[in-house]
């Protein structure tokens, strides 16, 4: 059973940066495509970025393109999300997830989810 645990959330001022990490255990992460999602109060969970199992393909939502960078390290069984130039609209609970299915920007295909970490962007 694959287990995912996020860390690195917190409070940051507009324009600031945060780096989220997700540690996997139980199963080698290189079997799975991985993604980051976020959910703000009253809104649906939305995809932020995803990377294929091989790492050959990375995609970002338009809302974060150029500001966020996702990476995976299969040797360490981890993934990360570097978030720069944060704004209040980025405030949400952020989740890492893994799936063996294609269509990595579709939250419904993900089998494994972390517990989430809160990111709050406020002055």
Features:
123 residues, mainly beta, seven-stranded mixed β-sheet, four-stranded antiparallel β-sheet, 11 strands
Distance between the termini: 40 Å
- Helix and strand element order: EEEEEEEEEEE
Number of helices: 0
Report the major sheet: 7 strands, mixed
Q: What fraction of the residues are assigned to beta strands by DSSP?
A: over 45%
Overall SS class: mainly beta
Extended strand count:
11
Rounded to an integer, what's the Rg over CA atoms? Answer: 13 Å
Shape: globular
Helix share bin: under 10%
Q: What's the pLDDT, averaged over the residues? A: 95
In short:
This protein is mainly beta and 123 residues long. The protein is 0% helix and 48% strand.
List the helices and strands and how they pair.
Elements: E1 3-7, E2 10-12, E3 18-25, E4 33-39, E5 46-51, E6 58-60, E7 68-73, E8 78-83, E9 92-99, E10 112-113, E11 117-121
Parallel strand pairs: 2-11
Antiparallel strand pairs: 1-3, 3-8, 4-5, 4-9, 5-6, 7-8, 9-10, 9-11
């Amino acid at each position: 059973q694959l287990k995912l645990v996020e860390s690195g959330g917190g409070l940051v001022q507009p324009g600031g940066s945060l780096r989220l990490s997700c540690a996997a255990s139980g199963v080698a992460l290189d079997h799975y495509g991985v993604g980051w999602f976020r959910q703000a109060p009253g809104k649906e969970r939305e995809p932020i970025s995803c990377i294929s199992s091989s790492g050959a393909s990375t995609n970002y939502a338009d809302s974060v393109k150029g500001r966020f960078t996702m990476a995976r390290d299969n040797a360490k069984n981890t993934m990360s999300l570097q978030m720069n130039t944060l704004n209040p609209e980025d405030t949400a609970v952020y989740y890492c997830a893994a799936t063996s299915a294609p269509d990595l920007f579709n939250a419904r295909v993900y089998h494994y989810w972390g517990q989430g970490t809160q990111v709050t962007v406020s002055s």
